[in-house]
Amino acid sequence: MIFSLCLAFLVGGCRGEGTTVPPAAPAADAAPEVTEARPTGIPIGTASPTAAHQPTGTATVAETPPAPTRTATSRPPALCSPLAGYSFDDLSQIVSAPFAAPRPGKDDGHHGTDFAHYGFGDRTTIAGAPVAAVMDGVVAAAIANSVPYGHFAVIETRRDELPGWLVEAYAVGEGVSVYHLYAHLEDPPVFAVGDRIGCGETFGLVGNSGWSGNYHLHFELRFGPIGATFETMSYYLTTTTEAERANYERWRFGGEFVPIDPLPVILRGAEGIQSPD
Fold first, then answer.
1. Which residues, 6+ apart, have CB-to-CB distance to 263 below 8 Å?
2. What is the tens place of the pLDDT at every residue in 192-249?
3. How many domains is the chain partitioned into structurally?
4. What is the DSSP code (8-state) at residue 53?
5. CATH code for position 233
6. Is residue 259 part of a domain?
7. Phi and psi for 73 in degrees, rounded to 5?
8. Lowest mean pLDDT among 7-11, 185-189, 229-233
9. Number of C-beta neighbours around residue 169 at 10 A
10. Per the domain annotation, does 41 fall within a domain?
């Protein structure tokens, strides 16, 4: 996946998750095999799964998770745009590379959705557009100079903070969180793992870091175990550490974090909260 050409490369696509000059792409079958069974509760790429998701694996899980800051009766009804100043209608028009479900245990497909453009409305470029959290949550990763994601952040939203419609549509069970990843930022994230962030709060700018062909936001959504964090993460290169590679495998295709198509979730969540100005 990470070395597949994104659709519409010239308007902000990426190789893998993007690079200006990527190394030769390995064959899809070259990705390490995973013996652990992939979670089966969520049909990948569908908008309305019916079975409960119960992730497996050995995540770094908080033994005693802190009490949620919202109750079941105070769930937010909607989501926020990941690009400040762009409406949800705008987002559907600037998709440069859509989600393509990876095969179980393989690092192929396209694990998220890319947003990019040159001219759009009165904007001549997406470069430098503010990136915002789509939901309330806690920072699970804040990593600089990663391969392939460049400067990127991961935010965890626990079940008790998810919109009720999302919990129902995906049959999200207890002990499950939604993790949202924002990649190829202009600068390294300024916050730290464990920091709180609010829906619509900006924390970075659209950039071209990592394996990126042009300025764009690569955005992922995954279901995973509660309380997971990542201090490092990187693809299999001779210059990366064993810990970086292990976290990459864990996130991308280890079966512990299940990717879903972000776009239908974002558009369904547009009912209510709008993009910040």
1. 91, 92, 95, 98, 99, 113
2. 999 999 999 999 999 999 999 999 999 999 999 999 999 999 999 889 999 999 999 9
3. 1
4. B
5. 2.70.70.10
6. yes
7. -90, -5
8. 7-11
9. 17
10. no
Tokens of residue 183, six digits: 């990649």
The boundaries of the domain holding residue 205 are 9-18+70-268
Q: How many whole angstroms separate alpha carbon 64 and alpha carbon 70?
A: 17
Residue 46 in 3-state DSSP? coil
Residues in contact with 180: Cβ distance below 8 Å, sequence separation at least 6, in sequence order: 82, 133, 134, 135, 137, 154, 155, 157, 219, 220, 221, 262
Spatial separation of the C-alpha atoms in residues 110 and 89, rounded to whole Å:
22
State phi, psi for 121 to the nearest 5 degrees: 60, -130
Residue with tokens 């040159």: 118
3-state class of 202 per DSSP?
strand
Q: Is the pTM of this model over 0.85?
A: no
Q: pLDDT at position 142, please? A: 98
